[in-house]
Amino acid sequence: KAGVTQTPRYLIKTRGQQVTLSCSPISGHRSVSWYQQTPGQGLQFLFEYFSETQRNKGNFPGRFSGRQFSNSRSEMNVSTLELGDSALYLCASSQTGPSGDTQYFGPGTRLTVL
Amino acid sequence: KQEVTQIPAALSVPEGENLVLNCSFTDSAIYNLQWFRQDPGKGLTSLLLIQSSQREQTSGRLNASLDKSSGRSTLYIAASQPGDSATYLCAVPKSSGDKLTFGTGTRLAVRP
Questions:
Q1: What are phi and psi of A84, to 5 degrees?
Q2: Residue from the list A44, A56, A102 with its beta carbon closest to the beta carbon of B98
Q3: Do A103 and B44 touch (CB under 8 A)?
Q4: Does A4 touch chain B (CB under 8 A)?
Q5: Are the CB atoms for B85 and B99 separated by under 8 Å?
Q6: Mean pLDDT score of chain A, rounded to an integer?
Q7: How far apart (Å, rounded) are the C-alpha atoms in residues B39 and A90?
Q8: Chain B: nearest CA to A55, how far in angstroms?
Q9: What is the pLDDT of residues A80-101, one digit of tens each?
Q10: Nearest Cβ partner of B31 from A33, A99, A108?
């Protein structure tokens, strides 16, 4: 079974631009969660999608948004990038959700904002 | 608001030692507790999941315990190996369907 894939793996953007990250979950998984990881704040939850619906949302500004498609693939978008958005963005998939069963993480997208 | 702390932040041990990593959480109303490892620059790998009704869970050389009432979990690694070097994170959801709140992590180095 193929693991969770994230594209692109690395991204460099400038302040004010927008970016879209993609996550393909393991086949059959309906839940996709997104996390931001920085040295200062650690791993912070962004949002979770289940069957195309946002089920949970973390404490991030509205510049961070996401969606999930009918094949469970998910995208997250960050608009008007700020220097503080530089981070490793991780997605995780599971069958039922982050609380219920084993989470499978992708390798992450490293975003650098200049 | 749930806060999850892990002590120590970093640990270096010689190969073969048994070691214990600690995880503390402020709100004992948790659904389960999960342990992960993260290799540098990579995603997380799930190690163990302990349900709130369980006291411990074992997988190979790993044993995790949970004391909900005191807000603590420990991850015991037996006979450590250099391949165990990684950052270990614990995480808790408040209820079924809830998000995971992650701990601050313990960076482990096992010296050959």
A1: -70, -5
A2: A56
A3: yes
A4: yes
A5: no
A6: 94
A7: 13
A8: 8
A9: 999 999 999 999 999 888 877 8
A10: A99
The per-residue pLDDT for range B82-111, each reduced to its tens digit, is 999 999 999 998 887 788 999 999 999 999
Using an 8 Å CB-CB cutoff, list chain A residues near B1.
none
User: What is the β-pairing status of strands B10-14 and B106-111?
Assistant: parallel
Cβ <8 Å between A98 and B101: no
Residue closest to B36 by CA, chosen among B81, B100, B91: B91
CB contact under 8 A, B49 and A99: no
- Mean pLDDT per 10-residue section of chain B, whose length is 112 residues: 93 96 94 94 92 93 96 97 97 86 95 96
Q: Which contacts (CB < 8 Å, 24+ apart) does range B95-98 have? A: B95/A99, B95/B29, B95/B31, B96/A97, B96/A99, B96/A100, B96/B31, B97/A55, B97/A56, B97/A97, B97/A99, B97/A100, B98/A56, B98/A98, B98/A99, B98/B31
